[in-house]
Every structure is written in structure tokens, then in C-alpha cells.
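Lab notes, practical 5.
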Amino acid sequence: MRTLGSLSILMILLLMLAGCGEGEHDDIKQWMAESSRELRGRVLPIPELKPFPIVAYEALDQMDPFSSNRVEPEKKEGGGGAKPDFDRPREQLENFPLETIQFIGVVSNAKTKVRHSLVQVDGVVYQARKGNYMGQNFGRIAEVTDNEIILKEIVQDPSGQTTDWVERRMTLQLQEGAQGKEGGK
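Output from the prediction step:
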């Protein structure tokens, strides 16, 4: 009996609650209905395409700019000059590009006055002196000073005008961090 009374009270409360909310939002519902009646979707027409003028290709007698037959300067045969010795045995430091070689110090022999440079490539230290070859452009050490190694490289003419070999001067500077380590030598 007790459950039947609790159930009936619950039902009465639910009916009262449902009756309170019936006409509450009628004004909002009416405004939405009026506003949606006036709305109409429309699609803009596709814009008219303008025809491009037809232009005739009048450069048939000229060279095709996309052709593989480019105009290259006429190469002249070399008139001599320095040429690398391709028959000599290559030295160890010629296997590395000059950019990867670091000049880290100098060792001097007081008796013979011969200066050896200490260079490092990939964590390995090598000795090189005047006359040794270094780098991949037939570079030969011309001089070793306290601060730099001076090389004379033999390369093909960079302008491409001739097939001559030309000599150019390159230097390797002593690395900053290595100067303090070298003082005791």
C-alpha cells in the first residue's frame, strides 16, 4: 500500500511539472517559423568565361629554348700550362675533399728546419709537409706557416672557355681551438 501511495504522488508531481512547461517558449517558436518562411537559398550564376586570344607561334626559325642542344661557348684546345701528373701514385690525403681536412697544428724540427703540418680528417691525425699532395684537386702544399697551409691546386679552366688546366691558390687556416693545444710543441 505504501508503494502505491508513493507511486501516485510521483505521478501527480510529473503531471504538474509537464503542465508548467507547455506554453513557455511559444514566442521563440513563432519567431523562428516566421524567419524561416522568408529565407530562400539561392545559387549565384556561373561567371562567363572570357575567351583567350589565339596567338600564332612565329619563332619556328629560332632555337627551341627547351631543346637539349644549348648554345655553349666554343672550347679551344689547351695551349699548355700546368697539367696534373695522372701517372704518379696518389697520397693518403688526396682521398678527402679539402673542406673535410682540418689544420690543427705545426711540428718543427729544430735541426733540419722542416715544418710538418698536423691535419685531421674523420678523427684521424696525419702529418704533411711542403711538397705533399692534399685534397681532390691535385693540391700540392707550397708552404706551411704557423697559421696556415698554402696549397697550389691544378683544376680545369673554371670559365669553360678552354680545356686548359689552371693553377689556383688555396689555404687551410689553423683551427681556433687547436692554437692553445699547439703551444707546448
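Observations recorded by the TA: Residues 2-20 form the longest helix (19 residues). The domain at 92-182 is CATH 2.30.30.830 (SH3 type barrels.).
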